[in-house]
Design brief:
Largest sheet: 6 strands, antiparallel
Structural class: alpha/beta
CATH architecture of the largest domain: 2-Layer Sandwich
Helix content: 40-55%
Radius of gyration: 40 Å
Distance between the termini: 91 Å
CATH superfamily of the largest domain: Reverse transcriptase/Diguanylate cyclase domain
Shape: elongated
Length: 482
């Protein structure tokens, strides 16, 4: 099993040199430690796959070293084979009890030693695969559970790339959406949460283009030296020993995007299990994105229908029903906290004449422009509604009567000074559009409800109409209790 790392801990220099030479002839990587103390330190730093440990050493005996090594947390547990010139059953039992995996009596036959080493490495490999399977399963379950808690596509993407990067040990895990043949967008990348819809030139990513062409996963080991990366060699010089894994996200035989991973691995690339794990996640990511997209579209449609239920279709202002709902809330708030609340009611003067003279289509255009002027004039906290026909209302929280009256006057001047010449091919070029406005405010002894506030504003509007129109009238301040 070539390229596996074996640590030899033995105070007999001649023996350890000979064993090392033999192991290297089988393509194992080796290191030697002359005593127990240095052996423990070497195991901590180098993290071997297997340790050949002499039992009799001057500073720390092999059994104590074995116990110490078993107390170290390794990402992959190293196998330990005890070697000793004594092979009585009591010593073998003690060695196995203290954490050893096997016991060989010196001098060991070469074939037997290699066979024992190979057997332990196979067992370690099976344990590693089992642990990898467990970790992958836990990650898939974690991603699935997380997907079940949210239908926000951005949050789902974040979960996917973070979990995959953590499981695989990637320095970068991204999801790339394909836009055109040469253009893509990085939807999310685990190492930088700020990355959103980052446009990339796919010609600089031949590995992605190759996956689009083949529709199959691709592993590129050591990007800096791989022939596929020759066209972009000058851009990837710093990516020595960086391996890449690209998994296609496919639907109906079409590559919609890719799961893109980079990991710095000098000794190996991505394993078959890692590729299969990422392929499962890529497939899941498509279905998660699809479900999230459908949910987002349904939510948008629901919001759109909600807007239709509260908005006037002609002017896009709030409608009569929503006006009363909001006004009642504001009146209740003003009463609870003893704050001011004003209401402006206004009516377009002689609007019937405009409809009769120019037609209802032109009248509708006038109403739309008047609505836009009112909305433009007020604050963001104020609410503008189409009360009915040619009548409009403005709810002004935390605004006293005088302040609302000044705002009403600004609205009146804005509407009367506006040119409606472009409406219906200039049909109103010489026509002045004016409004009459009535203003009422809480607190007042006659106002105990939203209906009372509307009635007081209506009375003031009626007075404005009777005063010659195109003017502002406000309710009397008598009875003001604030």
């Amino acid at each position: 099993m070539p390229f596996e790392k074996i640590l030899i801990i033995d105070d007999d220099n001649l023996t350890s040199v000979m064993v090392e030479a033999m192991l290297r002839s089988y393509d194992f990587q080796t290191r030697r430690a002359p005593n127990g103390t240095k052996g423990i330190e070497a195991a901590r730093q180098w993290r071997p796959d297997l340790i050949l440990l002499d039992i009799v050493m001057p500073d720390v005996d092999g059994l104590t070293v074995c116990e110490a090594i078993r107390g170290v947390e390794f990402s992959q547990r190293p196998s330990v084979i005890i070697t000793s010139s004594k092979g009585d059953k009591k010593m073998i039992a003690e060695a196995l009890h203290r954490g050893a995996d096997d016991f060989i009596v010196k001098p060991a036959d070469e074939l037997e030693l290699i066979a024992r080493i190979s057997a332990q490495l196979r067992i370690a490999g099976l344990l590693k695969e089992s642990e990898e399977d467990r970790r992958n399963t836990e990650t898939i379950l974690a991603i699935t559970e997380a997907m079940g808690t949210t239908l926000d596509s951005t949050e789902i993407l974040d979960i996917i790339v973070k979990k995959v990067a953590e499981c695989v040990g990637a320095v970068r895990c991204s999801i790339v959406l394909l836009k055109t043949r040469d253009e893509g967008y990085v939807l999310v990348s685990h190492e930088d949460p700020k990355v959103r819809d980052l446009k990339i030139d796919l010609k600089k990513y031949p590995e992605i283009l190759e996956v689009i062409r083949t529709k199959t996963p691709l592993v590129v080991e050591d990007m800096a030296s791989h022939p596929l990366m020759n066209p972009v060699r000058e851009w990837i010089r710093k990516l020595e020993f960086m391996s890449v894994l690209v998994i296609p996200i496919v639907f109906n035989e079409k590559v919609l995007g890719t799961l893109f991973l980079r990991a710095r691995r000098k000794d190996r690339g991505f394993t078959g299990k890692e590729v299969e794990f990422c392929r499962i996640i890529a497939n899941s990511s498509y279905h998660a994105l699809k479900n999230a997209k459908l949910f987002e579209e349904a939510t948008k449609e629901k919001n759109r229908l909600g807007e239709l239920a509260t908005r006037d279709p002609l002017t896009s202002l709030y409608n009569h029903n929503f006006f009363y709902t909001r006004l009642e809330e504001e009146v209740e708030r003003a009463m609870r906290y003893s704050t001011h609340l004003s209401l402006i009611m206004m009516d377009v003067d002689d609007f019937k004449r405009i409809n009769d003279t120019y037609g209802h289509r032109t009248g509708d255009r006038v109403l739309k422009e008047v609505a836009a002027l009112i909305q433009k004039s007020v604050r963001k906290v104020d609410m503008v509604a189409r009360y009915g026909g040619e009548e409009f209302a403005v709810v002004m929280p935390q605004t006293p009567l005088d302040g609302a009256s000044e705002e009403a006057e600004r609205i009146r001047r804005l509407i009367s000074g506006h040119s409606y010449g472009d409406v219906e091919n200039g049909g109103l070029r010489d026509e002045e559009i004016t409004v009459s406005l009535g203003v009422a405010a809480y607190p007042h002894k006659k106002i105990e409800s939203a209906g009372d506030l509307v009635n007081q504003a209506d009375r003031a509007l009626y007075e404005a109409k009777n005063s010659g129109k195109n003017c502002v009238r406000k309710m009397s301040l008598k009875g003001n209790s604030l």
